[in-house]
Amino acid sequence: MLTVDFSRFPLAPGDRVLDLGCGAGRHAFECYRRGAQVVALDQNGEEIREVAKWFAAMEEAGEAPAGASATAMEGDALNLPFPDDSFDVVIISEVMEHIPDDKGVLAEMVRVLRPGGRIAVTVPRYGPEKVCWALSDAYHEVEGGHIRIYRGDELLDKVREAGLEPYGTHHAHGLHSPYWWLKCAFGVDNDKALPVQAYHKLLVWDIMKKPLATRLAERALNPVIGKSFVVYATKPHLPAAPAADVADEPAEAAEAAPVPAAKSAGSAKTAKSAKSAKSSAGAAK
Questions:
Q1: In the predicted model, is pLDDT for residue 223 greater than 70?
Q2: What are phi and psi of 150, to 5 degrees?
Q3: What are phi and psi of 158, to 5 degrees?
Q4: How far, in Å, are 42, 176, 190, 282 from residue 197 at the CA level?
Q5: 52 CB-contact burial (10 Å; exposed 0-12 / middle 13-18 / buried 19+)
Q6: pLDDT at 275
Q7: CA separation for the pair 92, 118 (Å, rounded)
Q8: Residue 242's pLDDT band (boundaries 50, 70, 90)?
Q9: Residue from 138, 127, 86, 143 nearest 110 by CA
Q10: Among 140, 130, 78, 131, which Cα is nearest to 109's?
């Protein structure tokens, strides 16, 4: 179950992609299938080991094209172990609502993204998330749980303040909001409640079969109760250095001290992998 829409966020083979806070790896797997050079990073060692196993299984099954690569690693989103301008693409999906220093995370993402690179940020949408918080304290008052609810304009402002230029937004997973409302109403950890079980089966069926009826239903529901809010943005190119003004210099001086050629900015290639066949119906955090 992908939250990022790759028709709005295109990848080219060989793009170097960072999936930051990759979790179970659903976006990393999709990027890998699309031929990217993917780094899936998360602070949860167990999840990273599982993601690494799936990368290996995908390689063995020939699911990734020639030239694609995938690495799973533990890391800190506030102290990324990469040089500046390392990636063409950065994805951070359903992560920022967990992190106290969300501005620090945005700053790190901007640092490792090359000028002209693209970033996708997804967070739980304000309205559906407020319902979850109202129905259940356990939904958010847990270690590592959601610590904030973003309004759309608030997230866009933070993205702009970080130096990025948003170019598109949308909502996703309209079918999943009622599932989480049921979970919160019957108990977040109570998977035996019949309404929760029934709705979960519906979502699994939808993910596996992708029937037209549920695709149309979700398309209609996304603007109204879509579970996730998605922002796409680019990192601007640095302005060109102004040419030295030598018009008033003596010809001898101009010849003696020619203006050096501007150094071109290095562009590091990025990648990200694809969605896991293992994606569960309740994947939206």
A1: yes
A2: -90, 135
A3: -65, -35
A4: 29, 13, 10, 11
A5: middle
A6: 38
A7: 12
A8: low
A9: 86
A10: 78
